[in-house]
Amino acid sequence: MSQSTISTFQLFALIPDAETARLYLEARLWPNGTICPTCAGQDRITARKGGFYRCNKCKLDFTVRTGTIFERSHVPLHKWIYAMYLMVTARKGISSLQLAKEIGITQKSAWFMLQRLREACGGNGGKLAGIVEVDEAFIGGKETNRHESKKHKTGRGTIGKTAVMGLRQRGGRTVAMTIKNTDKETIQNAIFDNVEIGSTLMTDEHSAYVGLDGIFYKHETVSHVGGEYARGPVSTNGIESVWALLKRGIYGVYHQVSAKHLDRYVDEVSFRLNAGNVKQHTLERLDSFVAAVDGKRLTYARLTA
């Protein structure tokens, strides 16, 4: 086995129960001591039984779950950590049906867990720089595969699909998000928001990228229409591999993803490529996941609204 990977058996040996999981989370989320999630104070906190704490300043009773994706969940913490382990190690993700079987909960609860975990995957880690590949993809089922009542009957192509824009720094991070359309204003605003001025952009020949070369960026293109996919170092193969991974997960694991929740699935793939890099040790990848859960509470009412 790779030295950067631990097996499921080893994970269970490290974190065998809910109490061990609680101590693990507290050590990662509160490395310098217990912190009140309301006032961020540390000096007037009293420890109580069962992992509960009392902030005598703001009179709040709290646990390590408070203010995180784990809040008000009845699923034991060691099952949460195992679900996180599966998400960072499963290259194409894991379905709610499979997770339900793995940890012994209902499929509905597993789906809610996974959506909470995907919520933690979101967040901006700063702008990309250097050589950045940019591309768009359209996610959605084929018109011929839709039920007759759900067919758009407006032709082939992108009709009925959701546009996703991706930016990948060579040797660095990936940023991706759903967008309303692929017009010039939307595309270029997303680039300005996520790429540092002075970087080199590599795109296809889409007209939305026209005008980027000059004061702000250096811009290189490949002509896919003309059968060109690489010209020396100029290509968009890196970001296109992200689309391949996203689509394989949707088609092979999830089978169907609604446009309403697609952003979270995109965030999951981006997170797995960034903090979930296989060159990092599994425990380091788990630590990155735990660091992202704070302040990301997602209620079922908001999820299904």
Overall geometry: globular
Beta fraction: 5-15%
| Average predicted confidence as pLDDT | 91
Number of strands: 10
**Biggest sheet record:** 5 strands, mixed
How widely separated are the two ends?
44 Å
Describe the structure.
The chain folds into 2 domains: 8-121 and 277-295, no CATH class; 131-259, Ribonuclease H-like superfamily/Ribonuclease H (Nucleotidyltransferase, domain 5), CATH 3.30.420. 37% of the residues lie in helices and 14% in strands. It contains 10 helices and 10 strands. The protein has helices spanning 8-14, 18-29, 77-89, 96-103, 107-121, 184-194, 237-254, 262-274, 282-292, 300-304, and strands spanning 45-47, 53-55, 60-62, 131-139, 162-169, 174-179, 200-203, 218-221, 230-231, 234-235. The strands form 3 sheets. A 5-stranded mixed sheet has the order 6-5-4-7-8, with helices on both faces. A 3-stranded antiparallel sheet has the order 1-2-3, with no helix packed on it. The longest helix has 18 residues, at 237-254. The model has no long low-confidence stretch (mean pLDDT 91).
